[in-house]
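Thread: Newbie trying to understand structure tokens

Hi all, I'm a second-year student working on a class project, and my supervisor (Dr. K.) asked me to get a predicted structure for one chain before our next meeting. I've only ever worked with sequences, so writing a 3D structure as a token string is new to me. If someone could post the tokens and maybe explain what I'm looking at, I'd be very grateful. Here's the chain:
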Amino acid sequence: MKRFLAAIALVAACGGSSANEQPKLVTPPASGSAAVTPESLDKDPLSLFPAGALAMFSLDLHAFYTSQSAGAIAAQVTEKYFPLGAEAGFSASRDLDRVMGGIYSMQGVDALATLVGRFDTAKITALAASHAQIHGGGVVASSVYANRTLFTVNDIGFTILTPHLVIAGTKTTIKRALDRIRDGKLTRDAPAWMLQTLATPAAAGALAIDTKGMPLSNLTGGFPLKGTDGMTNVRLLGNFQAPGMHIAGSATYADEAHAKAGADGLRALFASTAFSVLTSALGVAVKDVAVTPVQNDAQISFTVDDASLRNLIGRLPSLASGS
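---
Reply by user tm_fold:
Sure, no problem. This is what the structure looks like when written as tokens:
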């Protein structure tokens, strides 16, 4: 669950370079069943994700780091807490362009992420062989699975698939992804509506949650949340619009009646004292909240100002660790 909370926090902290363009959900191109080559892996990282994701997210890190609002502090936090650094010929703020991830329930809470950027295989392999401590703590160990080298750092695994693509996460999900490569199964098997959300143009961040498989009340220890009765999924998109970050998306319900009641409940939730206490504790100011029922959906939009965004990014490490 901590990995899931960290993913939400990261998406909430994303920014884009298209200040005036509203993101729209679109259908991504279908993947074929061509032979597995480095080029095919680089072309479609989404084909590596197994079916059954409870949540998925995407971050355009290049747009994020170059944003005037929070780019500087984002780079500082990433450089400090990313496990690998100069000892592996790697700089997270320089070499990472995009991250896409999925949350699963395979053996407990499992996560898989694809990292797109530039990676020095030779230096990382040499680092693992040296058993030297890395700047993030711990050492890099290596093993072999499905004819691929699997590196682990502090119980988190990663595999370099090409000089531009790495998969990372828990061992269970990494092995599932490597099984897909070994078996030549490069097809998009994650839920279609999640893939559509992640493929949205002009969105520097996207989050899709299956609230039937993973109810939002799980995040509150089972305490019921207003507006979630009959909810089946949530999709959120983020980009920068002065004076901060704009979030837009929708919550989908079983039918129009649930959507109307859900919109009323979500408005009440945003206006509640509990929500104010939570955002105050996070140091985040949520403004311009709008919730509108449209058929089976409750359309949602709100903004987070620059100061709140910078504060949230600075607190991401503690949110991810649960401290």
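A couple of things are worth pointing out once you decode it. The longest strand covers residues 231-241. Residues 1-34 have pLDDT under 50 and may be disordered. Feel free to ask follow-ups in this thread.
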